[in-house]
TrEMBL record:
Segments forming a coiled coil: 216-243
Alphabetical UniProt keywords: Coiled coil
Species of the source: Chryseobacterium edaphi
Descriptive protein name: S41 family peptidase
SMART domains per record: TSPc (SM00245)
Amino acid sequence: MKHFLYSLSILVFASCASINKDNKHTQSTITPEKLHQDVDFAYQKLQEMHPKLNWYISKQELDFKFDSLKKTINKPLTPVQFYFKLQPVIAKIREGHLALRIPAKKFNRKEIKVLKNKKGLFGRFEYFVEEDHLYIVENKDSVENIKPGTEIVSINEIPVSDYLKKYRELISSDGYNTTFQDYYLKDVFFNFYVAEKGIMDSAKVETLYNNERKIVHLKRESKNEEELEKDKLEKKRTEEKKVNDYDASTSSYNRNFKFLVKDSTVVYMKIQSFSRSFSDRFYKESFAKIKNANSHYLIIDIRNNYGGSLFEINQLYSYLAPEPFVLIKPSQLTSRITPLRTNYFRKSNPLQTTIKGLLYPGYFFSQAFSVYKGKDGIAYYKMKENKLTKPKKDAFKGKVYVLINGGSFSASSIISSKLKYDKRVTLVGEETGGANDGTVAGFYSYQKLPNSKIDLPIGLLLIQPNIDFTNTQKGVVPDFEVHQTMQDIINKKDVQLDWVKDEIAKEKNWGEMID
């Protein structure tokens, strides 16, 4: 026990020392010459490992952008300042999964505990972004009596429009899609803001509501005993929470299932994220209920679903497919050795490193035998999702509607594209944030820029739905376009779901309203 406590104290001390060292580096400036080296390093690694680097931008144009960037770096910068220089160029590649990790202050356990016992400063609201305007659409805690629909005009006397213009340059969807940015920006705006300004305990905010301007002083409040107890309860994993994949940070379920009418003929299934966690059990139980109820209509809602597991979308598709199918095309790599560049030992403590070291031979041969060279001379990666999959015995045979919007990204776009191509569903809503013809993701190689120490995760697999490509360089376009306004959100009016309900009601000529 004495040796264990001694070893533990050394690990804690080393961890604190590492955090202090990283924070000191984040606040220090780096010479232009070293930053130029980081720019070259980033571009070199992208050319080595990204399998579709010039999908949306020519090599000549991208060469020019990286060269031009170096010319603008003529004075020392901190890693955060450098991030705001380099990331806009990375975003011009137009690959939504490709982005630098923004450097931010790291916290020790004591600091994390203090923050957990306090409420967020800006995180207590839900937001809506439109052009260069940021609105509050929900204020659950009635903070300062701010009404839904209120615009945040400035923070600490700096116009929010300046931040929005700056932050838009950091975000790209796949290709020339235009719907993704506003959805994503509303979720990450304050991530960028805090990375720039640091965590604050108060802020002076100028608001605008019904043409009336007002100054509001936001303060970070401590949680009361009841709220702290609620946090503890939310962390407890019940069977329901497991199967529906409960997210304590948002107090919501990733998956929801319910019948919309008394006779159970219409089913609504909301999937907030393809997390894979307990997905096999959720779909098995849900589609068994659908079959037993003899339901005729299924509405699958993947709006604001940023994607996730290919395994899960392949699983979901197997409950919708009328015949055997192949979800995605063979996944392309830049070379046969690319899968071995996934930073196997990344973020491992000494014990984990030892265990991983013992398992490494198995990992090495598994990755090596998963790669093959095609007749075209290109390296491909073997995956279950690019092999033939049979439909499940409880596969749904009725009519399917899928709700999509600009927040439907990555795996959500892959399954939407495949379903549309196979004419299996009716898509309703807005163009997806992810591309119709695929994306680059799969697994990543985490490169660290040598001087700024900024992480650059590079997707290694070209993932494309098994379809005839549209070559539009845009997202999956719905069969019926229905837009939701900010006022619809404030009024909690789901016009896209209502549109589907109305269509079903017309088709069945039902007298009763769908709940």
